[in-house]
Write a structure and sequence with these properties.
The protein has 290 residues and is of the alpha+beta class. Helix content is 19%, strand content 41%. It has a 19-stranded mixed β-sheet that branches. A hairpin with a 2-residue loop joins β10 and β11. The longest helix is centred in the first third of the chain and has 16 residues. The chain is globular, with a radius of gyration of 18 Å. The two termini are 12 Å apart.
């Protein structure tokens, strides 16, 4: 099976092009959790934060996206993965055009649209509207003073004020005074698996720099620490905006780079803009590898 490796500010993915017949015929290999884990393993496999299956789609879609986390579980959507997918489609089908190209992608989280912007060599994605209804996130946290579900969790005698936002997948956002003091590998998994999120959750520790910039550390559901999370960056800006920390277009600094998230009220869609890059390509001998 052929594959291509892409990364979006350090969030890396193995892309399987199911427009190609041989890949489409062997797509069932990715129905196995253990197969995905081995392929994503950074010591014994190719190594990535996840696998993206890019399939032909009917009607006016450009493609259908299936995103598999590195632990073999399927995610509803992935912002950085979506930017990588759109970059892949542009390079496969439209690179000779050298003009802005719009795409419509089918996902478990609904229809996602995005564009390749040749002038700045970046991808801009319309992530849609954030979800605040607890049952749809899903979370058992309650909406209190704001429109956003919130609560408290104590870890290591530290009280964490937590907020929940749905971006087609669940996100937990919590604010800290000093991002360097975050014990990500201790606190991350505890918050990922906490009782308030029945489907587990992505976790984001946030330090606010000013009303146009934040710094974030990410612990992703089903992946662990990652260099970036696109839908997480959106959830962070939505939460920061509602709480009055940030306004409008915000720069989100992550370990792998930065994203610009544009959202300024509770009715408009969220737009995410950032880099997505081809890394390399190769072939997997499934019979020998698996």
């Amino acid at each position: 099976m052929k594959f291509k490796k892409y990364q979006g500010i350090g969030n890396d993915f193995i892309l399987i092009d199911c427009f190609e017949k041989i890949n489409y015929e062997n797509i069932h290999y990715f129905g196995s959790k253990s197969n995905v884990e081995r392929i994503c393993n950074r010591n014994f496999g190719i190594g990535s934060d996840g696998i993206i299956l890019i399939s032909p789609a009917e009607n006016d879609y450009d493609a259908e996206m299936t995103i598999l986390n590195s632990d073999g579980t399927e995610a509803e959507m992935c912002g950085n993965g979506m930017r990588c997918l759109i970059m892949f489609l542009y390079e496969k089908f439209n690179k000779s055009i050298k003009t802005k190209k719009d795409y419509k992608i089918k996902t478990l989280a609904g229809d996602i649209t995005g564009s390749y912007l040749p002038d700045v060599d970046e991808v801009r994605v319309n992530i849609g509207q954030p979800i605040f209804t607890p049952i749809n996130i899903p979370t058992s946290l309650d909406v209190k003073n704001n429109i956003i579900p919130e609560g408290n969790i104590t870890i290591d005698n530290i009280n964490f004020k937590i907020y929940a936002v749905g971006m087609g997948n669940p996100h937990l956002v919590t604010f800290v005074e000093d991002i360097e003091e975050v014990k990500l590998h201790t606190w991350g998994p505890l918050l990922e698996n906490n009782k308030y999120f029945p489907s587990k959750t992505n976790v984001h520790f946030v330090q606010v720099i000013n009303d146009k910039e934040v710094v974030v550390k990410v612990w992703e559901r089903g992946c662990g620490e990652t260099l970036a999370c696109g839908t997480g960056a959106c959830a962070v800006v939505v939460t920061s905006n509602i709480l009055g920390f940030c306004n409008g277009k915000t720069k989100v600094n992550l370990k792998g780079g930065y994203l610009y998230i544009d959202w300024n009220n509770t009715t408009k869609n969220i737009y995410m803009t950032g880099k997505a890059k081809y890394v390399y390509e190769g072939k997997i001998n499934i019979d020998k590898f698996i």
